[in-house]
Design goal:
This is ABC transporter permease subunit. It is built from 13 helices and no strands. By secondary structure, it is mainly α. Helix 12 (263-272) runs antiparallel to helix 13 (279-310).
Amino acid sequence: MSASSEAGAGPAELLVPPVPSPTPQVNGPGRASPLWSWIGVMPFFIFAVLFLILPTGFLIVGAFQDPQGHFTLENFRELLQPGVLDAYWISVKVSAASALGGAFIGSLLAWAAVQGKLPAWIRPTLMTFSGVASNFAGVPLAFAFICTLGRVGLVTMLLKKYLDFNLYSTGFSVLSFWGLTLTYLYFQIPLMVLIVTPALDGLKREWREACDCLGGTPSQYWRYVALPVLWPSVLGATLLLFANSFGAVATAYALTGSSLNIVTILLYAQIRGDVLHNQNLGYALALGMILVTGLSNGGYIWLRSRAERGR
């Protein structure tokens, strides 16, 4: 009898939906409270307030004051002087040249490492070098380039000894516009490699295979598939490189001194004090730099979000 009752109960049991078991509530040490989460990010907020927000607010207020602390717009009128405008223009040219050169060469290096079918050890080696070189700047970088491309630098002497070629007879100087641009490329190219590599990793192999199956050529793949996906990342990274070089001061000052009048060196002279000393004009110069770099970084953030949505 028990066997028949078991047999008859089988189909009926299949019609009854299972009752879900209640999810256990995790309390105590297994789950962090919101208070501890806020405490964890407090060092970031403290650092941002002390070293970013407060100094920025201080120089914004100082840009609208005279040495006596009275409100004035004279500092911004002085920004229209030919010397100040030339400093901004030279900085824009150096930043644009190093950003475009770094973006082009860095993109090619990243493409070769990711999709160039090179030996497996190339990519980790390139990424490790890029991580180090992108942070190598300031006085050590300036000293390295003077020892390499100065009038008695290693490369200059080797070219003259073995190829009978005097680099400085062509008008080149490490203290000039092109010398500073070349120095900036040392950290701009690795930075571009680090930024563009994840975007190249996002190109799916199936897209290339689908293009080949449909009879598409490599040029058509890059024109209609790859480049439309990559251009927001590449353009955004170029804007980031522009902002990165526009705000650089230690490398330029250590390399060229006052021989190349870029805006960061002029700002340094105005605030630290010399014959051009006008601290409030320096604040106005810094505010103009904040606007330029802020627009560049804003464009990079917008393009990055666009690239992430496109994937």
